[in-house]
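As described in the Methods, two query proteins were run sequentially through the folding procedure within a single session, without resetting any intermediate state between them. The first query and its resulting structure tokens are shown here.
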Amino acid sequence: MINDDNAGLSGVDVDELIKAIHGGATLKTLNGISDEVMDELHNMAYAFYQNEKLDEAIALYRFLYIYDFYNAEYAMGIGAILQLKKQYDKAIDFYALAYALSRHDYRPMFYAGECNLMLGKLIQAKECFKIVKEESDEKSLTDKAEIYLNVINERCGDFKSDEEMKNVHGNE
């Protein structure tokens, strides 16, 4: 049992709070925020993104993700903005989260492939695009992945590492 004189927790059943947290509760749930409010905020964040107001968009997507870390679309939104801001390593991290949360949505894997490509990590990019091509049911996505794979294969062949490829091709 936790001491009842915790500062700032007056009126809160701490045991129930801890039980909810252990059960995977989100801040959205704990604060009673409706799906409608979250959807409205998501629509605002996406509108900011579409209008290239990236600072406003990422602030809202981060808020949404903090309040509901199970929603893959919020992690995707953050990843997309970071990709536009050329923060590719960070974008890859958020795409990995989105992919883990939505297992059968291969968009995050595809976009992670693009980020790896921009970082010059061709082997990782190739693996991402290969997964998309082999696993996704979305034809437009698999077609794009196949184009990337063809270009990478034409340029690099079947190297096992980016280092091996650089040793053969140099800094063309």
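Immediately afterward, the second query was submitted; its sequence and tokens are:
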Amino acid sequence: MSTADDDANAERRWRDGELESVKWLRERHRDEVELGSSTSLSTDEYGELLAYMQLLRDWPQSSKFPVQKYRPKKPSWIAVQTQ
């Protein structure tokens, strides 16, 4: 049987993994902007990415933490970018 600490630690590991899995999208976009290249992400997508990353960072402070059904929702277009 898991404890509240176990659940919280598991959710932090999930959150950390999610952040790591999308950092490259942010970095690629920043590099493209700095190079003056066309960007792979639209302005709206980049904003959604940053908002999602912030929600992930804030997740442990949420009153719903660590209940999995309340996890921040990943924008659906990210799955297309990561294939």
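The CA atoms of residues 11 and 68 lie 8 Å apart. We note this only descriptively and draw no conclusion about the first query from it.
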